[in-house]
Amino acid sequence: MLIRLSGPLLRFMKYQKEHEINEAQTVQRALHVLTDRYPNLKSVLYDTTGNVRATHRFFLNGTPLASSGMDSQVGSSDCLDILTPIAGG
Amino acid sequence: MPTQLRTEWAFDTSQFTPHQFQARSLLSVSFNVMWNWMRTRFISFRRSIQEHGLSWVIIRTEIEYHDRVTYFDADGFEAVVENVKLRRNRMLEFHVEFRTAEKRIATVTVLLLAVKVVDHDSLSALPGKVDHTLVELLSSAEIHSTVPARVVPSLLEKIQQYGTPVAEGLYPFTVHRHLCEVADQWCFVELAGLVGAGRESLVTAHRSKDADLLRGLSEPMKSLWAELRHAYFLFDEGRVKTTSYVFGERVYFVHRLLGGQANQEPYATVIEEF
User: Fold this and answer.
1) Are B71 and B77 in contact (CB under 8 A)?
2) Comparing C-alpha atoms, which of B7, B86, B101, B103 is closest to residue B43?
3) HSE (CB half, 13 Å, CA atoms) of B11?
4) Which residues, at least 6 apart from B249, have a Cβ–Cβ distance to it below 8 Å?
5) From CA B6, how far away is CA A15, in angstroms rounded?
6) Interhelix angle for B190-206 vs B23-41, to 10°?
């Protein structure tokens, strides 16, 4: 699947917007693969209890994905967008 | 008593067009003196984020020009922050008066929304409120329970209903770091420059359509009103969609700042009056 990020997350991912992840069957697993690639992203994306932070919004193929939907099955043609609407700078 | 903060600044040529003090410069100085007011009268922006997880995002701004002031009228100006209001413990309103010894240059109003910083590395945030420990630092005259009326929607409706549309154009841009603040998020100061570029592109492309259009380049601006809804971030692609209207004696430029995708609601709506 393709994961696209923008905004304040970019600097934790070497300023690369798009990431191809083929070794995951769920959104959650794909995010874990991503944070394994970019360890500095982990504490930005997840809170201390391991849940995705409420400050980020997820869209699977353009449809909003609630934090309860992280177990959604994904395939190679799916696209996950991660947006961070507000930064307090 | 509400507290006031006065600071003195030298005129520099980059602050001016041939006609007036640049809108972007007014916003830039306002941004600085607002944080100076915070630092000296309330809590510094840095400590607010680091110690209270409280930050602010700009949701509205207005510029009202008064007397015509050009670069050669004086050596410097005074920026006075006054009438600061905390509204419903979640909005902070600033008024900044710009004046020389002889003339009033402009008044800038900025409305900020409190946000709670959730992650200090990315500064990602959610809507928030001001803690009571911080509210207690303000005087009773600075604490208000109302929110100010929105100007942009009603003015836009009036312009679209009674004005005559003249021309429309698109100005594309990419958000690079010179347009951003510390969180790689665009800085509201830059909206004045971006819509100015949209207006100037429109005027130069369509000036033969209507003689009034040229007023957007050849005359000083009278007012600017802006509402901000979404933030641009580093490397985002944006477009300024500008429509000009003649309405009575005035020329208006209505700017919608859009993202890279179609059918998105505007990131910001800005109206300039000439």
Assistant:
1) no
2) B86
3) 20
4) none
5) 41
6) 170
Residues 6+ apart with CB under 8 A from B171: B194, B197, B198, B201, B202, B239, B240, B242
Is position A89 within any domain?
Answer: no
B7 vs chain A: nearest CA distance in angstroms? 24
Q: In chain B, which ranges are continuous DSSP H helix? A: 23-41, 45-52, 132-135, 152-162, 190-206, 215-218
Number of CB pairs, chain A paired with chain B, less than 8 A apart: 86
CATH of the domain at A26: 3.10.20.30
Q: Which domains, from first to last, does chain B contain?
A: 5-144 (3.10.129.10), 152-273 (3.10.129.10)
Residue B74 contacts A where some CB pair is shorter than 8 Å: no
Q: Which two tokens stand for residue A83?
A: 């947006």
- Answer whether B141's CB lies under 8 Å from A49's CB: no
Specify the residue for token string 């929304």.
B113
ipTM above 0.90, yes or no: no
CA B51/CA B7 separation, integer angstroms: 27
Q: What is the reported pTM?
A: 0.93
Host domain of residue A56? 2-83
Q: Which residue of A has its CA nearest to B46?
A: A89
A50 contacts B77 by C-beta, under 8 angstroms? no
- Number of structural domains (chain A) is 1
> Is residue A88 included in any domain, yes or no?
no
Using one digit for the tens of pLDDT, what is the confidence trace for B39-60? Answer: 999 999 999 999 999 999 999 9
pLDDT in tens, B165-218: 999 999 999 999 999 999 899 999 999 999 999 999 999 999 888 889 999 999
Contact A43 B56 (CB under 8 A): no
CA–CA–CA angle B267, B96, B15 (5° rounding): 75
Of A10, A40, A89, the CB nearest to B123: A89
Round to whole Å and give the CA distance between B8 and B145: 32
